[in-house]
From TrEMBL, chain A:
CDD domains: TM_PBP2. This is Phosphate transport system permease protein PstA. It comes from Sinisalibacter aestuarii. Keywords: Cell membrane, Membrane, Transmembrane, Transmembrane helix, Transport. NCBIfam families: 3a0107s02c.
Automatic annotation (TrEMBL), chain B:
The gene is pstC. The chain crosses the membrane at residues 43-64, 160-179, 199-220, 263-284, 304-327, 339-359, 459-484. InterPro entries: MetI-like (IPR000515), MetI-like_sf (IPR035906), Phosphate_PstC (IPR011864), PstC_N (IPR022182). It is found in: Cell inner membrane; Cell membrane. Keywords: Cell inner membrane, Cell membrane, Membrane, Phosphate transport, Transmembrane, Transmembrane helix, Transport. It is a multi-pass membrane protein. This is Phosphate transport system permease protein. The lineage of its organism: Bacteria, Pseudomonadati, Pseudomonadota, Alphaproteobacteria, Rhodobacterales. Residues 259-480 form the ABC transmembrane type-1 domain. Belongs to the binding-protein-dependent transport system permease family. CysTW subfamily. Part of the binding-protein-dependent transport system for phosphate; probably responsible for the translocation of the substrate across the membrane. SUPFAM superfamilies: MetI-like.
């Protein structure tokens, strides 16, 4: 109920006889308090919104930054010729016959040797028990290095080996002695050794380029998982979106804005575009699954299918912004061109379109950014549920070979049971957000720089 | 000739046609000013007529040929060897793989073309022969599959031959027709511009095609689903328990628990987003100084630009555990309402945060559209600013705000990643907001990911869920737009 109407409802009765201009009466005070309260609600609402934003960003940065560093064990590994190259003629094909199982004992021995040199006592009699300190991928790492440079055989070489995910978690505070009590991957004794290795300088945490550029790894080796391959998947998808959505979107907008007469067909298109802009993204995923994979038999999980689906999803965004920037070009430009004898088509392509281009590009970049972060349709066309471990071999493979995409990879990591993968998911989000931020900043700069006010 | 080479060939023809058409038109007049159009239009006309019809034919052929051949070859498989359409599909994909294997073998010289045509399972171990050239087959090739594969190859070869001929004939016909036309008095520009206009219209029609594709793909699969599973059960059953082993029968696929979860989570989200968004919009449009507005509005909108997977992870790893530490066993409140991090509240609150900028931006626009004269009138009667907002601005903007909330609701219902990660997987009809429930979108994802068989009701149900989702969100959007549009008419 309101005071204003209340007042007018009983005009005859002079209620505030003792009203003074200098001292506000109870009624006015109440109204002013209500005013203040109302304003406080508004401020609180904005504060809550900004608070959520802040919490979100802080959470992402705090949980994600550890993913960029990784614990490494630096040790000297002896590479005896009698084990790695029995014939002694350094023939690569022959050396390839020694599998990672042949290399693993070397790493074990090297670890034991390094511990002995640093004067660290181990409770383990068997050097093999030390293996849990380093990642399961180190044997392959040593093998790759040897195959890349056969001259290493017979020498000792210093390797920087990935530490096991549990050791990494211990360094980052995720794993404690209590939590490893029932963990069969590592024991408290291992952590004691790690403590001493840190003191001896054998174990250190440093920037891990493998996370940004590397491939995904299996469920049991979070320490060697990276987002690089799925980044390539996203890149190829964005190429498809750019190559299709920009020309189609611009052509459609030109038709609708410059040529279409008001009729049923035009109305139908307009209604469709505005509806498509509001269709949930998961429905586009169903469309992609049914049309591109089931009907057209395109390879599932391939970036080209993802690109096609995201193109259809991005089109409405691009069309809406392109039409807005075409509309912003003043009619006088068109009239002048028509006046000197240009055809309608020439007017549009020679004069209107170039003037609208900055706006179109801005809209396109924003559309691309939206497509880059979209996950739901990718789940349906099969870009999750497998390990994107191989970078595409060729340009065509980039489009056709199964791959993941950045948001799908993040989802994949978030689903895995090992908490070490959560850290990688947050780290992946940081990379994704950096991409989005850069794209949006470019869009803003384009707009500031080139947008003309008529 | 492979489609790619054919495409390159007609492209070359088009480029040559451009040059010839241009030169011919220029040569046909003594003075360039006598040309009807600029010289390039004559060239473009030739290129267009040589390329466009042929390329269109090529595209249609490439799409249609496998379908036609597939249909004709599948007759070769005896009906006794398969039970239903799904099994036939599997056999046909074997046939295709064998056919491709034979192609590879011929290309590598492991088999002569004659051998590939006449090879018989009775005399040769086809699987081993194909294995030698790097084509791995899952099972031994049986006689019918091999025969079908050979027929497939033969028909594909004939089809490709006809395609090459047809495309080249069309391209050459267009080419020579346009060359003959390339004379000075021909209105080349009009022809070219009509061609471009056709292209523009086609591009605009893609929106219609997309909608059509969505509706048809949902509809056909839904009809297929209802053939396997009664529609009445789907819409009225209160239980959702798909079986993963058998086909049909054992599964209970009622949509109601999913709809309940969807609406419950959406309502929680709107209860978070609407007051915050609305008050933020009111403050930004009525009270805030220019500087505050220029700072707070874009920052709030950042919330809308963050990908939903980020919110999903935020719900799963931050909001969920936080809520458990307050409402869960041994939590701050000392109540044991919440069993796990995944719950209606978890997803709802996170989604509410995501929706704040939707509500605030749309409401902001609508509040700004209320004419200043109405506010001035209210101030003139002695109302304070908040009284003006409550009694004049908000009632005037109400239809628009309702529209904004409906749009936000439609987003909430269609949102996938937050509920997939934050809401849980158990379909449940309960009133406790701290329990895990699931939604339509989450179930679409779980039924369609993985190696599901698309012919089973457990997979097809996703399409029925999809069409329900599509209809509900579309209905909400149309309603919202209708309300907003109706309101706009009042003040313009």
């Amino acid at each position: 109920m309101t005071d204003a109407t209340h007042g007018t409802a009983e005009p005859a009765e002079p209620r505030r006889r003792k009203a003074s201009l200098y001292a506000s009466d109870a009624h006015t005070r109440r109204r002013n308090a209500a005013e203040k309260r109302f304003r406080a609600y508004g401020i609180a609402a904005i504060a809550i919104g900004l608070f959520f934003l802040l919490v979100l960003l802080v959470t992402i940065v705090r949980n994600g930054t550890p993913a960029f560093t990784q614990t490494f064990v630096t040790i000297e590994v002896a590479l005896p010729a009698d084990k790695l190259d029995k014939s002694g003629n350094r023939d690569i094909e022959e050396m390839k016959k020694v599998s990672t199982f042949g290399y693993a004992p070397l790493v074990d021995d090297a670890l034991a040797e390094a511990l002995a040199q640093a004067g660290i006592e181990t409770p383990f009699a068997n050097a093999k028990d030390l293996r849990q300190i380093v990642s399961a991928s180190v044997a392959a790492q040593v093998r790759d290095a040897v195959l890349a440079d056969p001259a290493l055989v017979g020498t000792s070489h210093e390797f920087r080996l990935l530490a096991a995910s549990r050791v990494d978690g211990y360094m980052k505070g995720r794993v404690t002695r209590e939590s490893v009590a029932r963990d069969k991957n590592i024991s408290a004794e291992h952590l004691d050794i790690v403590d001493q290795m840190i003191a001896a300088g054998l174990v250190e945490r440093r920037f891990n380029p493998g996370f940004v550029f590397g491939a995904d790894a299996s469920e049991s080796r979070p320490e060697s998982a990276g987002i690089g391959v799925s980044m390539l998947g996203s890149f190829f998808m964005m190429l498809v979106v750019l190559a299709l959505a920009l020309p189609i979107g611009v052509a459609a907008s030109i038709y609708l804005e410059e040529f279409a007469t008001q009729n049923r067909f035009t109305d139908l298109i307009e209604v469709n575009i505005s509806n498509l802009a509001a269709v949930p993204s998961i429905v586009f995923g169903i469309l992609g699954l049914a049309v591109f994979i089931q009907f057209a038999h395109l390879p599932s999980s391939a970036p080209i299918v993802g690109g096609l689906v995201l193109t259809l999803m991005t089109l409405p965004t691009i069309i809406i912004s392109t039409r807005a920037s075409l509309k912003a070009v003043p009619p006088s430009i068109r009239e002048a061109a028509l006046g000197v004898g240009a055809s309608k088509m020439q007017t549009v392509f020679h004069h209107v379109l170039p003037l609208a281009m900055p706006g179109i590009l801005t809209g396109t970049i924003i559309g691309l950014a939206q497509a880059l972060g979209e996950t739901a349709p990718l789940l349906l066309i099969g870009m999750v549920g497998f390990i994107a471990s191989n970078a595409p071999a060729s340009f065509a493979d980039g489009f056709l070979a199964p791959n993941s995409a950045m948001p799908a990879q993040i989802y994949e990591w978030a689903k895995r049971a090992d908490p070490a993968y959560y850290e990688r998911a947050w780290g992946g989000i940081i990379i994704l957000l950096v991409f989005l931020m850069v794209m949006n900043i470019i869009a803003i700069i384009l707009r500031r720089r080139f947008e003309r006010r008529w | 000739m492979s489609p790619l080479w054919l495409l390159i060939l007609i492209l070359v023809l088009a480029i040559a046609g451009f040059a010839i058409g241009r030169t011919r038109a220029m040569a046909s007049v003594d003075d360039h000013r006598k040309l009807h159009s600029r010289p390039n239009y004559y060239g473009t006309n030739v290129a267009m007529l040589a390329f466009a019809p042929a390329a269109l034919l090529l595209a249609v052929w490439v799409v249609a040929q496998p379908i036609v051949i597939n249909a004709s070859v599948s007759h070769l498989i005896p009906e006794t060897s398969y039970e239903d359409a799904g099994a036939l599909n599997l056999i046909m994909s074997d046939v295709k793989r064998v056919a491709e294997g034979l192609d590879v073998a011929v290309a590598q010289g492991a088999l002569s073309a004659e051998e590939a045509r006449s090879i018989r399972t009775e005399f040769t171990d086809v699987r081993a022969r194909l294995g030698e050239v790097g084509v791995a087959l899952g099972a031994n090739v049986d006689r019918d599959v091999l025969r079908a594969a050979q027929a497939y190859r033969a028909r594909a070869a004939t089809g490709t031959w006809f395609m090459t001929a047809a495309v080249l004939i069309v391209a050459l016909a267009g080419f020579f027709f346009a060359i003959r036309e390339a004379r000075g008095d021909f209105r080349a520009r009009n022809r070219v511009e009509n061609g471009i206009l056709t292209l523009l219209i086609t591009a605009a029609s893609i929106a219609i095609l997309t909608t059509l594709g969505i509706v048809l793909s949902l509809l056909f699969n839904t009809i297929e689903f209802f053939r396997l599973y009664p529609a009445l059960d789907f819409f009225t059953r209160l239980e959702w328990a798909p079986s993963f082993s058998g086909r049909g029968g054992a599964s209970a696929l009622g949509i109601l628990p999913l709809l309940w979860g969807t609406f419950y989570i959406s309502i929680v989200a709107l209860l978070v987003a609407t007051p915050i968004g609305l008050f933020a919009a009111i403050y930004l449009s009525e009270y805030a100084s220019k500087r505050v507005r220029a700072f707070a509005k874009p920052l709030l909108e950042v919330l809308a630009g963050i990908p939903t997977i980020v919110y999903g992870l935020f719900a799963l790893l931050t909001v969920g555990p936080l809520l458990v530490s307050v409402f869960g066993n041994g939590g701050l409140l000392g109540v044991d309402w919440m069993g796990g991090g995944r719950a209606v509240m978890t997803a709802g609150i996170t989604m509410g945060v995501m929706l704040i900028p939707f509500v605030s931006s749309l409401s902001d626009d609508i509040i700004n559209a209320v004419p200043q004269a109405m506010r001035d009138g209210s101030y003139g009667l002695g109302a304070t600013q908040s009284e003006t907002v409550r009694q004049v601005v908000l009632p005037a903007a109400l239809p628009g705000i309702v529209g904004a909330v409906l749009l936000a609701a439609s987003r909430a219902i269609g949102e996938t990643m937050i509920v997939v990660l934050g809401a849980g997987a158990a379909a449940r009809m309960s009133l406790n907001p701290f329990e895990a429930m699931t939604t339509v979108t989450a179930k679409i994802v779980s039924q369609l990911t993985g190696d599901s068989d698309f012919a089973s009701p457990e997979a097809l149900v996703a399409f029925a869920l999809g069409i329900t989702l599509f209809v509900v969100t579309l209905g909400l959007n149309v309603l919202a737009l209708y309300i907003v549009r109706k309101y706009r008419e009042q003040y313009e």
